[in-house]
Design goal:
Keywords: ATP-binding, Nucleotide-binding, Translocase, Transport. Pfam families: ABC_tran. InterPro entries: AAA+_ATPase, ABC_transporter-like_ATP-bd, P-loop_NTPase. This is Iron complex transport system ATP-binding protein. GO terms for molecular function: ATP binding; ATP hydrolysis activity. The protein contains 9 helices and 13 strands. By secondary structure, the protein is of the alpha/beta class. The protein has one domain: P-loop containing nucleotide triphosphate hydrolases (Rossmann fold), CATH 3.40.50. It has a 7-stranded mixed beta sheet with strand order 1-11-10-4-9-8-7, sandwiched between helices. Strands 3-2-5-6 form a 4-stranded antiparallel beta sheet, covered by helices on one side. A two-stranded antiparallel ribbon has the order 12-13. Helix 4 crosses helix 5. The longest helix has 16 residues. The N and C termini lie far apart (about 45 Å). Bound molecules: adenosine-5'-triphosphate (ATP). The site of adenosine-5'-triphosphate (ATP) has 11 residues, from helix 1.
């Protein structure tokens, strides 16, 4: 049973308070939670191309983890999914991917009900790069990436030359070509992360979901990964990535959705959500925003929240 009472699950102070509610794209007024702050620029109807999660709820052990989440991720854009630890980002990505289907709500992608697609059709449509997805299979990186082609071929057929070429290109694009002959089990955390991305790329999804894709990566590899995501978006892919690094989000995302305690706190263009009066309360920190000296995009600087004076 899912406890839908507010008292069981929510922190008192996360996010914008009541009175800031403004409906936006994919955020139907009926489904919006109190405290949802969706920016006026994103107001409008749900876009036909791209992803729309509608009033998605999921709970376990009497605890509501996702509480009527509405999220729109347009096609040909990178959408960042932000929120403090335990806010429900991974759970939401798994719900959208159908790995842990929601108890309530729907997930529509390019006009199709994603949750009604069969496994194979879904695997041809979307790929999910999970956080710290481990694999101890005794196989090479190249063969692991080739597994991404399985949804695209008949069940009895082995990989074709075209499949191998796609896997090679995916390895190249993910910056993992030099790892191709390595045994997956011997890879470092950052090397594994690149291989997971390569496998997802080999799947040639139209919807790419990523849970902390820059985990374990050094700064150059982080920037490379975000460039790959931007390149995918430019070629029409819908990209939704859970990110902890708000500066990477600021540098790379077209728009962001901020959740706390399983509810949307704010959603809209990156530069309008990554502002002190939204980020500070959501994460419980003091936050300043400066222009990036090279790009002009927002750079966030953090400090511990001020203790209230006694
Ligand atoms: N299967 C489960 N059983 C019980 N609790 C769960 C389960 N899955 C998730 N949770 C809880 O749901 C909450 C949200 O978890 P989730 O992993 O989605 O958060 P997150 O935003 O991805 O966190 P992080 O940033 O730390 O990775 C957490 O409190 C977690 O403990």
């Amino acid at each position: 049973m899912t406890d839908r009472s507010p008292s069981g699950t929510r922190r008192a102070s996360a996010g914008a308070g009541p009175g800031t509610e403004i409906p936006g794209p994919g955020i139907s007024p009926a489904g919006a939670s109190p405290g949802v702050r969706t920016l006026p620029e994103s107001r409008g109807d749900r876009q036909a191309a791209g992803l729309a999660a509608e009033r998605v709820s999921w709970g376990t052990d009497g605890r509501l983890i996702l509480d009527g989440v509405d999220l729109a991720a347009p096609a040909a854009a990178v959408t960042g999914l932000l929120g403090p630890n335990g806010s429900g980002k991974s759970t939401l990505l798994r719900a959208i991917a159908g790995i842990r289907p929601p108890d309530d709500g729907g997930v529509v992608f390019d006009g199709d009900d994603l949750l009604r697609l069969g496994r194979r059709a879904r695997a041809r449509t979307l790929a999910l790069v999970e956080q710290d997805a481990g694999t101890d299979l005794p196989i090479t990186v190249h063969d692991a990436v080739l597994l991404g082609r399985i949804p695209h071929r008949s069940l009895l057929a082995g990989p074709s030359d075209a499949d191998r070429e796609t896997a090679d290109r995916a390895l190249e694009r993910a910056g993992a070509a030099d790892l191709a002959e390595r045994d997956v089990a011997t890879l470092s955390g950052g090397e594994r992360q690149r291989v997971h991305l390569a496998r997802a790329l080999a799947q040639t999804p139209r919807l790419l979901l990523l849970d902390e894709p820059t985990n374990h990566l050094d700064i150059a590899a982080q920037l490379h990964t975000m460039r790959v995501l931007r390149g995918l978006a430019e070629s029409g892919v819908t990209v939704l990535a859970a990110l902890h690094d708000l500066n990477l989000a600021a540098a790379s995302c077209d728009q962001v959705v901020l959740i706390a305690d399983g509810r949307v706190v704010a959603a809209g263009p990156t530069s309008q959500v990554l502002v002190p009066d939204i980020i500070g309360p959501a994460y419980g920190v003091a936050c300043d925003v400066l222009p990036h000296p090279r790009t002009g995009r927002p750079v966030l600087a953090f400090a511990p929240a001020q203790e209230p004076a006694h």
